[in-house]
Design goal:
Residues 1-15 have a biased composition (Polar residues). The chain has 374 residues and is of the alpha+beta class. It contains 13 helices and 17 strands. The chain has 2 domains: 1-36, no CATH class; 116-366, no CATH class.
């Protein structure tokens, strides 16, 4: 059978062919798959025997993202963005979507929903391929708009993880990111690394920590009703943990997230719901190296992370925690402005505890050779 082929130039110079009886290949494959009616899978146990809720769990397991630790994708452990939970790029295996149209129709948006959306609101030192946050925000806006056209007007995603320095945070970048139309994360994690604190410098790493609070109102105004958790991870060096603990107590007692008259997320003031984690990593930064004050551990630094989770009052009480009455009064005041956490303020130090001892002076050294043990 002979067909007459016409070569046509599509958008952006894309070339495709038009043949009688064939769909125009310039139409995205995704739209073509969803536009056709799917056959009923009576002979498939996946659809005819397994209940939908169990099938959803299977799809969740198969389409959740994971760290792709195959070399050469592993991040260099000497970089500032390497950490135990971020050792390699994240990947989603999408082979399941290629099996049949029925599975594709039911799962095509799940890789996006389950993938942890990671954004870096900090300096230029970010993982390879991460790109600048404004470019990523633009891509996310276009993707959510395309999903809305396909009838997915509200796609809840599991998690957004933002690494931000306090300067970019105070400039409102996080508020802009969370206000993207159609963005509905169930959980938001904000990580302030040791090097992300305001005024941090290798030459004077023991300056009093300072965490402004003007950004909270902008973030709360862009909150989705789907967000049930807002986690703040505060990182410092192990021997300076008392400083982060003092800031954490101030945050838990005074801060809240949410709109006046709407859902309010609080933190546990008793500390029972707080999480503490530790890890040891390279002290490399900007091609310089800071030795650890603990000489026996060589050129590694011990890090301390305090995680404060803001959630509903009911959820906190179920876990045995307590919501601060001060935070409740603050949330009930439509004109309330959050108080910054400034360890340079004597009143905060007196109320929440003094900072730990000063860090002994340690020299700046050149980066070790590849063979050195880090």
């Amino acid at each position: 059978m002979n067909f007459t082929t016409q070569s046509t130039t599509g958008p952006q110079g894309q070339r495709y062919s038009r043949r009688p009886g064939l769909r125009n290949s310039a139409v995205p494959l995704h739209q073509r798959l969803l536009s056709k009616r799917t056959r009923k899978q009576h002979n498939s146990p996946l659809f005819s025997v397994i209940p939908p809720e169990i099938r959803t769990k299977i799809f969740t397991y198969a389409l959740s993202d994971y760290e792709d630790r195959h070399r050469p994708l592993l991040y260099d452990s000497k970089t500032s963005f390497w950490r135990p939970s971020h050792r390699a790029p994240r990947r989603t295996s999408t082979e399941l979507l290629r099996t049949c149209r029925a599975i594709y129709r039911e799962t095509w948006f799940l890789p996006f929903a389950f993938k942890e959306q990671i954004h870096w609101l900090c300096g230029p030192h970010v993982p390879p391929g991460s790109g600048q946050w404004n470019g990523n925000a633009t891509k996310l806006t276009l993707l959510l708009g395309e999903m809305a056209k396909q009838g997915q007007e509200k796609v809840e995603i599991e998690s957004i993880h933002v690494f931000a320095n306090t300067r970019r945070l105070e400039h409102g970048d996080l508020g802009v990111l969370l206000s993207i139309p159609g963005l509905h994360p169930r959980r938001i994690t904000l990580t302030i690394r040791y090097i992300d604190w305001w005024g941090w410098d290798w030459e004077s790493p023991d300056k009093p920590l300072y965490f402004k609070a003007d950004w909270i109102s902008a973030v709360s105004s862009g909150f989705s009703p789907s967000t049930s958790e807002f986690r703040i991870e505060l990182e410092t060096l192990e021997h300076l943990k008392d400083r982060v603990d003092a800031i954490g107590k101030h945050i838990a007692e005074n801060w809240f997230f949410g709109r006046f008259g709407g859902q309010i997320l609080y933190a546990d003031v008793s500390g029972k719901c707080h999480q503490v984690s530790r890890w040891s990593g390279s002290s490399a930064w900007y091609k310089k190296h800071r030795t650890n004050y603990q000489k026996h551990k060589g050129r590694k630094l011990d890090y301390y992370i305090l995680t404060i989770t803001f959630e509903s009052e009911l959820s906190i009480k179920r876990k045995g925690g307590v919501v601060s009455e001060t935070a409740k009064r603050n949330a009930a005041d439509p004109l309330f402005k959050h108080v910054p956490a400034n360890l340079g303020d004597p009143s905060i130090l007196d109320r929440y505890g003094p900072p730990s001892h000063e860090m002994p002076g340690v020299p700046m050294l050149p980066l070790p050779d590849e063979d050195d043990d880090l």
